[in-house]
Specification:
Length: 253
């Protein structure tokens, strides 16, 4: 379990980028952090593996205060899919995954074997893709490699920061489906950041709505849509439903 206990973050002293955030991520759940650009989603995610330190409050993983854990060790032990793509351009696809396996002291042979295994997990055929360089892949394929690399940490926790943000709608839905399939196969705790309300509704076992550094509401899609806790949440979801209705009207008149 990941716990945020009255966490605050400010970068320049007085302005709170995150203002007293308290929530839990349950083992095996996919929690989506939903909020518009600048609301504090990446900041929240980066404090879990100590890429950033909170200004106040405590973050615990399985009961342990992360502030007491060695940061490099912690970072290596948690899968992280970066906002943007973040593959090393001068490494092949397989080598991009092997980096993570090398840190776990796997033999070279095992690294290669496992890199192929994780490529298969994200539906990339190793015989076609392992030896390619990132520039020789489409955006969607690069993102799959990013996910494979995060899986290769063998971590129970995956942090994903707008992993599909740069993709077109068709590739985005394909990758969302794969995350849903993957979720059934692997019991991992996922914290998934997005500004896309439909993505949140598809992927989240629960959704945490963040607005200007405040946690507006956390709950299942049903709870949030049926009982919005604040005007902001109400507006956000009723707009989405309205847009969907308009779209259906266009399709079915
Ligand atoms: N290193 C930093 N120094 C100063 N301000 C920052 C820094 N990182 C983020 N911020 C500010 O914190 C706010 C939240 O940023 P971020 O967590 O990246 O938002 P999101 O991921 O939701 O788009 C923004 O106003 C951003 O400008
Ligand atoms: Mg961000």
């Amino acid at each position: 379990m990941i716990e945020f206990d009255h966490v605050k973050k400010s970068f320049d002293g007085n302005y709170n980028v995150l203002d007293d955030i308290t929530f839990n991520v349950m083992p095996g759940e996919c929690l989506v952090l939903l909020g518009s650009s600048g609301s504090g989603k990446t900041t929240t995610l980066k404090m879990i593996n100590r890429l950033l330190e909170p200004s106040a409050g405590i973050i615990r993983i399985n009961g342990q205060d992360v502030a007491t854990l060695e940061p490099v060790q912690l970072r290596r032990s948690i899968g992280y899919v970066f906002q943007g793509i973040g593959l090393f351009p001068h490494f092949t696809v397989s080598e991009n995954i092997q980096i993570v396996l090398q840190l776990q002291k796997f033999s070279k042979q095992k690294q290669i074997q496992q890199s192929h295994y994780f490529l298969e997990q994200v539906n990339l055929d190793p015989s076609r893709f392992a030896a390619r360089y990132p520039a020789e892949l489409s955006g969607g394929q690069q993102q799959r490699v990013g996910v494979a690399r995060a899986l290769a940490t063998h971590s129970d926790i995956l942090l994903m920061d707008e992993p599909f943000g740069a993709l077109d709608a068709i590739n985005r839905v394909a990758l969302q489906n794969e995350i849903l399939t993957l979720k059934k196969k692997i019991a991992k705790t996922i914290v998934f950041v997005t500004h896309d309300i439909y993505e949140a509704l598809r992927l989240g076992d629960r959704i945490a709505v963040i607005n200007q550094g405040k946690l507006e509401q956390i709950g299942t899609r049903k709870e949030i849509m049926q009982k919005p806790a604040t005007d902001f949440v109400h507006e956000l979801f009723s707009q989405a439903v309205h847009q969907l209705k308009e779209f259906m009207d266009v399709l079915y008149v």
